[in-house]
């Protein structure tokens, strides 16, 4: 949501043309002798010598508001504009221009009472005792506005929930900090008083010359997430930040790269807080400890920012053996990867079958009263367009005899079955290897039949119990079945199935392996 606004300099000129004018009353070089400046008006004065200082008192007659100040530059004078509270304590100091330049203070949060504006000169050679400057003030409603000073977590402005908060990337430097080069930043408090789980979506409008960075912090000051833009003038968008209320979080809005600001164009930070329904990820979920519970059949998420990793916790809370299947939809411009880990985060399978903009499929993984995690990442570390979400679906089905039980990619995890039986499985993902173990109790001729599947050229290897290879057979072509026989003595044997090319796999079609005695 981006609107057009009058530049502050133009707004000040319009205000000056129709607002009451007061003249400074000398002496006004301290708080006790401050001249009057109307909250919606202007004052005229002069700096009679280089070290002259002019104080103005602004009386605020409403409970809350946002005050903007503008002083027009004049010859020889390098203005410094300071804004102070009723005790004279400095709240903001602005010195963004040189000799002859205007100075602007925006988004000053005020309440009922007196404030002070102090004008001084930084040019020791100034000699312009007669030309008058114009100091303008404009008071507006505080609703939906940034309230400066808000450059620390402790001073954070309230974020307008389910609405727009407007402010400025200005001033560029925060001169109240010990280091004069300290860049200005804005903090916002996100306070949810209701109990329950919620998701927060944020959209930040772009502002010319400004490259924004938005950071999320918890109440203890731990940084939870950082979102950066695509360059100066670009906005930001972040979806599905998880909040478990009642709670308070903080947003830090800063600028990246060259220290740029813009006093003329508002940024608009649009927020939407929704009750969580279990159908979207809950950011931050970048590590196992913060994984989003995946209780429903489908869940959506976003790869943002660049390098994002989304963790989902899957519970198979049953003593029965269960098969997990998962499907990850494609996202325009991205090459997604789906990783399955065990309950402590160790990878079990990495699903990276497709090229960019193609889905990924976990054909089946055996679970037995266990927790596992599904992790969605992007191969090159890019971020998605915030409008493009992925969908991750899962099914948990009881395992039945005759179905493959993954993982079975080594002799240690080989799946046992009997001569005279058959088993259905998938050769997937890329590089998949399936081991099966069987016993022969009487010497005989054992026949191995393996159905063909599209995109796979089979290779089968037979090993005895001493891990000695007895034979190796390959199908004639991709998609063709493989059949062979071997006379075997009583003992334990392993059969290894794989493709002749590790890149050949099939997530769609099951194979059937059958052993029989001839």
Question: What can be said about this structure in brief?
Answer:
The chain is mainly β and 518 residues long. It has one helix and 31 strands.
Strands, helices and their partners?
Layout: H1 8-18, E1 21-23, E2 35-36, E3 41-45, E4 54-71, E5 79-84, E6 90-94, E7 103-121, E8 133-140, E9 157-158, E10 163-169, E11 186-204, E12 212-217, E13 223-228, E14 236-255, E15 262-275, E16 292-293, E17 298-301, E18 310-328, E19 336-341, E20 347-351, E21 360-378, E22 390-398, E23 415-416, E24 422-425, E25 434-440, E26 444-450, E27 458-464, E28 469-474, E29 482-488, E30 491-499, E31 511-517
Mean pLDDT, all residues: 93
| Biggest beta-sheet profile | 8 strands, mixed
CATH topology of the largest domain: Jelly Rolls
Query: Strand fraction band?
Result: over 45%
Total number of helices: 1
Estimate the helix proportion, in percent.
Answer: under 10%
**Uncertain runs with pLDDT below 50, 5 residues or more?**
1-17
In the CATH classification, which architecture of the largest domain applies?
Sandwich
Overall CATH class of the largest domain:
Mainly Beta
Number of strands: 31
- Morphology: rod-shaped
Query: What gap, in angstroms, lies between the N and C termini?
Result: 74 Å
Structural category is: mainly beta
How many discrete domains?
4
What is the rounded Rg? 34 Å
């Amino acid at each position: 949501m981006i609107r057009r606004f009058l530049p502050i300099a133009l707004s000040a000129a319009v205000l000056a043309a129709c607002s009451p004018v007061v003249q400074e009353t000398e002496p006004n070089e301290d708080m006790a002798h401050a001249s009057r400046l109307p909250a919606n008006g202007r004052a005229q004065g002069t700096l009679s010598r280089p070290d002259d200082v002019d104080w103005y008192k602004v009386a605020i007659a409403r409970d809350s508001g946002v005050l903007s100040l503008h002083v027009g530059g004049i010859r020889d004078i390098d203005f410094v504009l300071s804004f102070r509270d009723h005790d004279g304590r400095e709240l903001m100091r602005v010195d963004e221009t040189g000799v002859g330049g205007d100075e602007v203070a925006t988004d000053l949060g005020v309440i009922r009472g007196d404030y002070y504006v102090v004008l001084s000169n930084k040019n020791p050679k100034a000699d312009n005792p007669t030309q008058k400057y114009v100091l303008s003030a404009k008071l507006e409603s505080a609703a939906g506005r940034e309230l400066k000073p808000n450059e620390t977590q402790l001073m954070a402005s309230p974020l307008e929930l389910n609405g727009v908060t407007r402010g400025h990337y200005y001033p560029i430097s925060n001169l109240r900090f010990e280091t004069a080069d300290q860049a200005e930043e804005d903090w916002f408090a996100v306070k949810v008083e209701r109990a329950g789980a919620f998701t927060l979506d944020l959209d930040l409008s772009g502002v010319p010359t400004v490259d924004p960075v938005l950071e999320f912090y918890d109440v203890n000051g731990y940084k939870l997430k950082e979102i950066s833009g695509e360059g100066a003038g670009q906005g930001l968008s972040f979806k599905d930040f998880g909040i478990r209320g009642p709670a308070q979080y903080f947003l830090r809005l800063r600028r990246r790269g060259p220290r740029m600001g813009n006093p003329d164009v508002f940024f608009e930070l649009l927020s939407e807080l929704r009750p969580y329904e279990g159908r979207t990820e809950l950011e931050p979920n970048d590590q196992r400890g913060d994984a989003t519970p995946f209780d429903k059949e489908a869940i959506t998420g976003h790869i943002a920012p660049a390098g994002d990793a989304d963790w989902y916790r899957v519970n198979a809370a049953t003593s029965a053996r269960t098969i997990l299947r998962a499907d990850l939809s494609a996202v325009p411009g991205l090459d997604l990867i789906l990783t399955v880990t065990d309950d402590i985060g160790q990878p079990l399978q990495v699903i990276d079958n497709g090229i960019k903009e193609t889905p990924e499929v976990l054909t089946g993984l055996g679970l037995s009263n266990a927790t596992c995690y599904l992790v969605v990442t992007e191969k090159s570390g890019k971020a998605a367009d915030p409008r493009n979400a992925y969908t991750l679906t899962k099914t948990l089905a009881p395992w039945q005899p005759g179905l493959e039980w993954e993982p079975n990619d080594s002799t240690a995890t080989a799946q046992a079955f009997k001569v005279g039986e058959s088993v259905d499985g998938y050769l997937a993902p890329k590089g998949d290897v399936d081991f099966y173990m069987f016993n022969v109790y009487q010497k005989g001729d054992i026949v191995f039949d393996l159905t063909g599947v599209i995109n796979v050229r089979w290779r089968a290897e037979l090993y005895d119990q001493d891990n000695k290879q007895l034979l190796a057979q390959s199908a004639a072509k991709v998609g063709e079945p493989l059949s062979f026989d071997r006379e075997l003595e009583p003992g334990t044997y392993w059969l290894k199935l794989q493709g002749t090319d590790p890149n050949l796999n099939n997530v769609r079609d099951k194979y059937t392996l059958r052993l029989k005695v001839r």
